[in-house]
Amino acid sequence: MLFAVFLALFLPCVGMSVVFVVYMCFFCHAATTTRQQQSSNNHQEPMKGINEKGLSSAQLDKLPKVPGQELVLGNDCAVCLDVIDKEQVARIVPGCNHGFHIECADTWLSKHPVCPICRSKLETELFDGTTESNPC
Ligand SMILES: [Zn+2]
Ligand SMILES: [Zn+2]
Q1: Is 57-131 in CATH node 3.30.40.10?
Q2: Among candidates 78, 80, 109, 105, which has minimal Cα distance to 90?
């Protein structure tokens, strides 16, 4: 008799826990799959517009340098908004002849291959051509 009572109490409990475990497994599985879908969706969207590479340090070295007093287009550095002293050496953007502090120009141009003032693009081929003289 005791055994029958025990079974009567125990079996529904087991049944309930099995249903509960299956339900939890299903719920967890659904949650992880949606999370995976979300992360893969994020992965599939590449950041656009950051494909432009800045100049390498070797290319930066080839940019013309002039003393501050020879700057034609004013001696204000547009990157740090400070004045380029006459004795200071300034980096010139070829083409538009805008001048900047060497550190400022290098910092900017290593990230963006454009002039910070007029946005004129620096042609990287310009530097690559001058380095290697044809061996033939
Ligand atoms: Zn500067
Ligand atoms: Zn410029």
Answers
A1: yes
A2: 105
